[in-house]
Amino acid sequence: MTKFFKHQVKIYYEDTDAGGVVYYANYLKFLERARTEALANIGLSNIKIKNDFKALIIVKSCNIDYKKSAFLEDELIIVSCITSFSKTSFTMRQNIFKNNKEIVIAKIHLVFVNMDGKPIKTPESILKKFQPYLNEKL
């Protein structure tokens, strides 16, 4: 059975525009926080990856479908899983829910790179930690 990473976010005034609606670019921040917490959930961090593997995980591309808005003081749940792996990259699907209704769907393509920014093979130990979160059907 596939596992999912879950992260909760509360919307603050700073996240919204003058009308109290979450500014569209802030969803990228929420998604990034969820990915960072997903790493922590499996015993990793961006600093650990940098120090132990001399690597970084960078976003290659991002596709977001905004279905409904979020507003000031809403509580959101971000559900993330991995949908595919390649030698140097992986793709995550991240869905944002408000009151159990999907409001944002994001597909994020991430790449492992060395400190010079060149793609490198994903470390095997990291692949093993990600494996339970692989859901190719999403």
Q: Would you give the CATH topology?
A: Thiol Ester Dehydrase, Chain A
Broad structural category:
alpha+beta
**Gyration radius, to the nearest Å?**
15 Å
Shape: elongated
Order of helical and strand elements: EHHEEEEH
Strand order of the largest sheet: 1-3-4-5-2
What's the overall average pLDDT, rounded?
A: 95
Number of helices: 3
Query: What is the annotated CATH architecture?
Result: Roll
- Fraction of residues in H or I helices: 10-25%
Low-confidence stretches: none
Major β-sheet annotation: 5 strands, antiparallel
| Name of the CATH class | Alpha Beta
Number of domains: 1
What fraction strand? 35-45%
The beta-strand count equals 5
Can you tell me the CATH superfamily? Hotdog Thioesterase
Q: How far apart, in Å, are the first and last alpha carbons? A: 14 Å
What report would you give on this structure?
The chain is α+β, with helices and mostly antiparallel strands and 138 residues long. It has a single domain, classed as Roll (Thiol Ester Dehydrase, Chain A), CATH 3.10.129. It is 22% helix and 38% strand. The protein has three helices and five strands. Strands 1-3-4-5-2 form a five-stranded antiparallel sheet. β4 (89-98) and β5 (101-114) form a beta hairpin. The longest helix is centred in the N-terminal third of the chain and has 16 residues, at 26-41.
